[in-house]
Every structure is written in C-alpha cells, then in structure tokens.
Specification:
The chain is α+β, with helices and mostly antiparallel strands. It has 12 helices and 19 strands.
Length: about 375
C-alpha cells in the first residue's frame, strides 16, 4: 500500500483485482520527485530512484525511512548511478540525480558489500543505458532474481541471474509484461520458527523451500522434523529443542530478517546459543523485551549469547520494529500465561493476516486497540 501510494503520487494508475492480481499502468507518470512524506514510511521507496533517472534524465528522491535497525546508507545507489554517467548529490535530505542525454553503460559497478536495493536500483537504471553494465559482488537474493525475470520479460537483456556478477545490455525501451511475485521467504521462515516454539505439526503451502536452505538446516539441527516439496514444507516438533549457533550473512547465508525470531526460539532450549549479527549493528532491540519474558540473553557488540531456560513467561512487551514484533509473537506462542504486545502496527508491513493464519492452526491470539 505504501509503495502504491508513492507510485500514484508519481502518476502511476493501478487497480487491484479480486484474485490478488495487480494491474499497473505507468504510461502517465508525470513527476520525477518522491517527497519525504511518502518515502519516509518505507526504505524500499528509494527504488524509484533508478527508474525515474533512466526515464526522465533526472530524479529527486527523499532519503528513505523504515525500521530503526542500523545504518543503511544509500552511497551504493549514488556511486553506481555516477558510474552510469549521472551527476548525483545530497541536498537538504534529498538525493538529486541528473544526466545529460541517456545513461551510459560500458561501466563496471562494484559493491564492497552486496546490497539488495542497491543492486536492484542499478539493474533498473542500466536496462535503458547505452552499452553494457556489469555489476560485481551483486546481491543474489531470490527477490533480485525475481526482478531480473520480470525485466527480461519486458525486453531487457540481463545475464547472471542468481550469481554475484550481473551483466546488463542496455535496450531502447521496455514493454508491459506479466510477472508472478515469489512467496515471501521471511514470512515462511517466521511460521516455521513459530511451529518450533509452539510445538505440534504444520504444513506450509505456497512457499519456496529452496529459498530457505540455511534456515531449514538450522531448524533440523535444532530438533525439528522437516519434509519439503517444491512449494510446500511439512514440519513437526516431537522432542525437546537443541541450541544452535547462528551467524547472519548475505544470501544464501542465514537471513538477518529471521535473526530475532530464531533468538526467541533459542530461549526455549536447555543449552547456550551464540548469535552473531553481521548485517545490521542495531538489530538486538528485541533482547530487552525477551528478557522481560524470562529469557537470559546478554549482548556484547554484534553478538548475543542466549542461555536457554526451557520456557518463557507471559508479560507486557513493546515491539520496536517489524522483525522484533514477529519474534515477540513467536515467544508469546510458547510462553506460559498471557502476553500483551504493544505497537504491533510494525507487523502489518511484513505479514498479511498473521493473526488469522495463526489462529487458523490453533493459536489463541486477539488483536485489540491499545486503549
């Protein structure tokens, strides 16, 4: 909804059908500015930068917002666009980019660290650049591959899908196309971890197990029984949980977006787990709230040591960001007694009908007004 509001502000016309199909018409886009009031709500809004620059030769996009989980600089986006011939600057909280004529390929864009949105922005801009653009140390997340598939279906010529070296051959224009959005692997992973916390058995359908190999390996090591098909996962917990160590890494490593949830699971073991967060330096804000529920977690810099107590107790807790919210739901499913989670609006940016889905398989959850 946030992204569609931003696109509509730029002149995009869209319509959502009953079957969850979204029709998008961008032929009437008439603005190259994404204002602060719209961009501040979600970091992914910065993804309009590359397309607007490629289309209009200029773009003015506010610095993005999102969850306060650490520094997520836009320098990769800016430096990459400069390699394509654009003049890019930061002024009064806005990224200003312009180019005389068309963007020019025949350039190599190298990321010191793989950046998902950085890779995607350069990809979209390079599609309409003259010549060939090579992106090295590119992000390999499935979402990047999904975007490449869409762009190629629209007439782009992109090689290197699912690798860290992507080659984009510029074309004159793109044409409309149909695309199927891949299932959300973080939503899938959250429900798998929730089953581990609550116990029982569960069949998850409409997912892509191949996108979650690192999590599935850790959950199996933890003691869950997992059987995967092409688009489904059957998981059950029949014995006590074992502690495992976790280190978040870029894909295909363990996702940082599942770190908070699996930390909640580790509090339910009878061992010690070491969790290293290597992606975001401020992504342990859920620790204090889990400790309020009886967990024993100590944080030192980018490392958390979880001493499993085997159980948690219900308590009033406060959600600080999207994935912290999910971790508290996971903890509450396993805790003894009632847990009240405040500021759960964060959840709505990452989960559709979470309450309905969990209550549908036996959870006792109600969503209430805070007053």
């Amino acid at each position: 909804k946030t992204m569609l509001s931003l696109l509509a502000n730029l002149g995009v016309v869209w319509e959502k059908k009953q079957d969850n199909t979204l029709l998008v018409d961008s032929s009437r886009v008439n603005s190259f500015e994404a204002p602060y009031d719209m961009v501040r709500k979600m970091r992914a809004s910065v993804l309009v930068l590359g397309p607007l620059l490629a289309r209009f030769g200029q773009a003015r996009v506010s610095l993005p917002g999102g969850c306060a989980i650490g520094a997520r600089p836009v320098n990769y986006h800016m430096e990459g666009l400069e390699k394509l011939g654009a003049k890019v600057s930061l002024e009064q909280g806005y990224i200003n980019a312009e180019v005389s004529g068309a963007l020019t390929g025949e350039a190599t864009v190298y990321f010191d660290l793989p950046s998902v949105t950085g890779t995607e922005n350069i990809l979209m801009a390079a599609c309409l650049a003259r010549g060939t653009t090579t992106i090295k140390n590119a992000a390999r997340e499935p979402e990047v591959g999904n975007l490449i598939g869409m762009l190629n279906g629209m007439g782009a010529v992109i090689e290197g899908r699912d690798t860290d070296r992507i080659v984009v051959h510029g074309v004159e224009s793109l044409t409309p196309s149909d695309i199927e959005i891949i299932p959300d692997r973080i939503e899938t992973g959250t429900y798998l971890i929730a089953l581990g916390a609550a116990g029982g058995d569960l069949c998850l359908t409409g997912c892509r197990p191949s996108h979650l190999s690192s999590l599935l390996e850790k959950l199996t090591e933890c003691g869950l029984e997992i059987d995967s098909g092409e688009t489904c996962i059957y998981v059950k917990r029949r014995r006590c949980l074992k502690s495992v160590d976790i280190k978040t890494m870029v894909y295909p490593g363990f996702p940082t977006d599942l770190q908070a949830q699996i930390m909640a699971l580790m509090t339910l073991t009878d061992g010690v787990s070491v969790i290293d967060e290597t992606i975001f330096e401020n992504r342990f804000m859920h620790v204090a709230e889990l400790n309020r529920m009886g967990a024993d977690i100590r944080v030192d810099s980018g490392r958390a040591v979880v001493r499993g107590q085997g159980f948690l107790k219900g308590a009033p807790v406060m959600a600080t960001d999207l994935r912290a919210s999910a971790s508290l739901v996971v903890a509450a499913l396993a805790a003894r007694g009632k847990t009240e989670i405040y500021r759960v609006y964060h959840l709505d940016r990452g989960y559709v009908d979470l309450v309905a889905k969990l209550t549908g398989v036996g959870a006792d959850i109600k969503r209430l007004r805070a007053d």
